[in-house]
Amino acid sequence: MAERTPVVGSKFSGWLGIQFYAASDGSIIGDVILQPDQEGPPLYAHGGISASLLDEAMGTSAWRAGYKVVAANLNLNYRHPVPLGVEVHIRGHVESIEGRKVHTSGSIILPDGTVAVEATGLFIHAPHIFEGMAFPLSAPAQDDEASEE
User: Fold this and answer.
1) Residues taking part in catalysis
2) Which of 67, 78, 97, 114 is deepest in the core (most CB within 10 A)?
3) What are 86-104's pLDDT values in tens digits?
4) The whole model's pTM is what?
5) SS3 category, 56
6) Could you give the CA distance from residue 23 to residue 2 in angstroms, rounded to a whole number?
7) Contacts of residue 14, Cβ cutoff 8 Å, sequence gap at least 6
8) Element holding 57 (H helix, E strand)
């Protein structure tokens, strides 16, 4: 397995029980085993937990790309229930940048390779919200002119 570089998402990532890593293609990846206190339907994860995991992965991918973002829109397609007590794979990736808009995608993948949940997200580069705060993933935006739009 290729070496993985740990990255820090928000404090919420820790509560979710996931450690994210930077993949060589720019994606953010992580594996997690969801616990009984994250249950929705019997023996399966609550949909809000799935949404939170994907929000974190997609947002962290934007931060890793150098954009201090906040979520503006998340769209999720729940294709299969996410079981508790089984390791699942989480992925988030920046798809495109349009000015201050950072478009992302993400997925939760079951051990057999089935995509359980897929998502798209729109995040807005908003460095003014984070002024004076130190963040491990903060870096200058790739296009400083875009941040002034």
Assistant:
1) 55
2) 67
3) 999 999 999 999 999 999 9
4) 0.86
5) helix
6) 9
7) none
8) helix 47-64
